[in-house]
DNA sequence: CATTTAAAATTGGTTAACCACTTTTCATGT
DNA sequence: ACATGAAAAGTGGTTAACCAATTTTAAATG
């Protein structure tokens, strides 16, 4: 799963317009699962756009499972009917650039789940990794340095320990945007830093002791301020 | 957010090896936030790989917020310290291809949240959209036709109504893989289809009446079989 | 010596040519 | 008519050339 397709780009509008035209083409020609689309060259010619942009558009639709490109052969409609095809393309076209509030909301949802799963599934290696990030965080705070990075790595270590590759991937995907906004709005104040050391340690201990409910409870406390912030923006 | 970057590819190994080398380079040269990386040409020369692959690797790191490419200028280390850089690149390199179990686990987590949010935030337009997908689903089932697509679109309509663009995006991202596996393992049996019509209708009504708890409860019932299946695989 | 400025080198991004392979076409032989 | 096979056309993927804008260099100017 390569989420890259969702990256923002100056060409996004062009690519979305191509996706729209591909959709119209599929409907007009009544293409069904397995049917072949016109070649990239023909599409770029017909739509009056570069082949690169056609390729990007196809890659995006391929990522969402709607098309399937086969080398030296062609691009085919995936095993998905015309109804789902239309519905999903509409959804894809209307995808908004994630806003900060939705990112935080999603992060909280993830972390309250990953912390429980981590408490159940964590391996010895996971614990070691988490402990390392925990110590690195404490050290930075004790030296009164900015520790946003170390804070983050601790949470990512939990996600990894959850044993859920999908959530781990998504956590990594939303992380950069979260950091950017945190620094932009100064979410993590230094006043809260010392308190956070204790909270991190408690979360770690709960996971280590495989106390699922306590782990979640401590994470909830840790997120308390984040909650408030999220809903006040 | 263009998740495309996470797509599987034959070049993934090469690109991951390039990412590894970029990480080593950043460490060796002690590059800090804002510092410039060698040009794409120099990197492709140094690593003995094509510039395209270097570009793909950089795009991936850019998606995860670790690098920032500026046209006609260069590629720069993002505003992220060396610790987070190393930690996150390690995480990125060790990302597993999402397995079916983790996909289902994530989907359930999402849907139990989106259904609650939808009950709170749904607009009249959302309701209209959901009703359409609901009716399309019923019609297919009554005609004893396969309705996997319509089932899916109903759930996507809920995700959209949740008003959370991040979860909406992620739901779309995991959907194709879910469908593929459903059809592969014949998860949705026709015996359950008639029952599902009623369940869908109840979920819709709960969202319409903004009964948050009931909406979640009905969704949980709807997922009951999915739960069992997921944990028996 | 400092300042200006223009030209040359360098950059990420884009386009066009090329490649290896597949698919189609159609002439040939039976 | 039909089967065979080779050649031509077509395919997605890859590489190399090109572009416009930036950055550096150094020569010209005061």
What's a quick, concise take on this entry?
Two copies of one chain form a homodimer. Chain A has eleven helices and two strands; from the N terminus they run H-H-H-E-E-H-H-H-H-H-H-H-H.
Explain what the structure shows.
Two copies of one chain form a homodimer. Chain A contains eleven helices and two strands. Chain A has 233 residues and is mainly α. Chain A is elongated. Chain A has two domains: 91 residues, Winged helix-like DNA-binding domain superfamily/Winged helix DNA-binding domain (Arc Repressor Mutant, subunit A, Orthogonal Bundle); 133 residues, Up-down Bundle (Four Helix Bundle (Hemerythrin (Met), subunit A)). In chain A, helix 5 packs parallel to helix 9. The model of chain A has no long low-confidence stretch (mean pLDDT 90). The longest helix of chain A is centred in the middle third of the chain and has 22 residues. Helix content of chain A is 70%, strand content 3%. A two-stranded antiparallel sheet of chain A has the order 1-2. In chain A, a hairpin with a 3-residue loop joins strand 1 and strand 2. At the A-B interface, helix 3, helix 4, helix 5, helix 7 and helix 8 of A face helix 3, helix 4, helix 5, helix 7 and helix 8 of B. The structure holds a DNA duplex (30 and 30 nucleotides).
